[in-house]
């Protein structure tokens, strides 16, 4: 396997799972007062645009990584709105 693909896959994996600890903590504690709504909102928009870019380029790793990331970030945003 090409080392460039391996580096890209590792980067995509780490970027994708980076929000998982916050998702788990937020679900567990049902507390979001220390979470910045705007930071997560801007992140969601950026990830959405990366997803659109991946779809336009038909680049499966970009599509998968950003699709999963957008799902996780949306959970945090939804819980932020719910638990204000």
Strand content: under 5%
CATH class: Mainly Alpha
Task: Provide a count of the helices.
Answer: 4
Q: Roughly what is the average pLDDT, rounded to an integer?
A: 93
Q: What does the main sheet amount to?
A: none
CATH topology category name: Monooxygenase
Number of domains in the coordinates? 1
- Helix vs. strand class: mainly alpha
Order of helices and strands: HHHH
What is the terminal-to-terminal distance? 47 Å
Any low-confidence stretches, pLDDT <50, length ≥5?
Answer: none
Helical coverage, percent range: over 70%
Number of strands: 0
Shape: elongated
How large is the radius of gyration?
14 Å
- Report the CATH architecture: Up-down Bundle
The gist of it:
The chain has 84 residues and is mostly helical.
How would you describe the overall organization of this protein?
This protein is mainly α. It has one domain: Monooxygenase, CATH 1.20.1280.290. It has 4 helices and no strands. The protein has helices spanning 3-17, 20-29, 37-57, 60-83. Helix 1 (3-17) runs parallel beside helix 4, helix 2 (20-29) runs parallel beside helix 4 and helix 3 packs antiparallel against helix 4. The protein is elongated and about 45 Å long. It starts with a helix and ends with a helix. The mean pLDDT is 93.
């Amino acid at each position: 396997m090409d080392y460039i693909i391996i580096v890209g896959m590792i980067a995509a994996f780490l970027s994708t799972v980076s929000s998982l600890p916050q998702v788990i903590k937020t679900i567990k504690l049902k507390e979001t007062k220390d979470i910045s709504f705007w930071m997560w909102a801007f992140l969601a928009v950026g990830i959405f645009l990366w997803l659109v870019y991946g779809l336009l380029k038909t680049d499966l790793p970009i599509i998968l990584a950003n699709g999963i990331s957008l799902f996780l970030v949306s959970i945090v945003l939804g819980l932020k709105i719910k638990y204000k």
